[in-house]
Amino acid sequence: MLIDITCFTCYENFSEDIEIYDGVHQEIIDCEVCCRPNKLFIEQKNGEVIQLNISDGNE
Ligand SMILES: [Zn+2]
Fold it and tell me: 3-class SS at 20?
C-alpha cells in the first residue's frame, strides 16, 4: 500500500510502498530527496493506516 511521507529532515513529500500488516510496527525509510532516515510508526487496521508518526531515524 502506498503511503505519503513527509520527511522529518527536509519536509519534502514522497510515497513509500509498505506491506499491509494489521497492527503496529516501526520501519526505517530513507527519504527519496535527502536520503536521511525517517523512523515510521505505523498502525494499520483492516488494511487502512489509522496512525502514522514520523520521527528522526537517527535518534
Ligand atoms: Zn528528506
Answer: coil
Going from the Cα of 18 to the center of ligand 1, the distance in angstroms, rounded, reads: 18
The Å distance, Cα 36 to ligand 1 centre, comes to 6
Instruction: Report how far ligand 1's centroid is from the alpha carbon of 40 (Å).
Output: 13
For residue 31, how far is its CA from the centre of ligand 1 (angstroms)? 5
Answer for the pair 46, 34: CB distance below 8 angstroms, yes or no. Answer: no
For the stretch 4-24, pLDDT in tens is: 999 999 999 999 999 998 999
The predicted model scores a pTM of 0.88
Report long-range pairs for 1-4 (Cβ below 8 Å, ≥24 apart). Answer: 1/47, 1/49, 3/42, 3/49, 3/52
